Structure of YtzH-like protein:
Amino acid sequence: MPLSHEHQLSLLTDILSNHKTDCCGSVSECEQVKRLAAALLGNQHIDSHVKTILTDIYTYSQNGINTNNLEEHITSHQDSLTQWVDGIHQFS
């Protein structure tokens, strides 16, 4: 059974919040974030403000997958992670 867009957003913000709190993550988490962002970007029920955030999250996850130092990548995006999670909660 596929996840609803509400559950997808919840899962996405949970992973991003963990990245923010732990300052670390895994490539598989970045791959999951990328898949969630891509699925949500294609959903007509998602607010346009959230889609703008999702585009940034997609890029973040793609770069995280390809980086040689994932912890540094996550640490360098601490402010963005907070803004993205807050923005999703505000508009969803």
About this structure: The two ends are 22 Å apart (CA to CA). The chain has a mean pLDDT of 96. Helices lie at 5-22, 27-41, 48-66, 70-76, 78-91. The chain has one domain: 26-91.
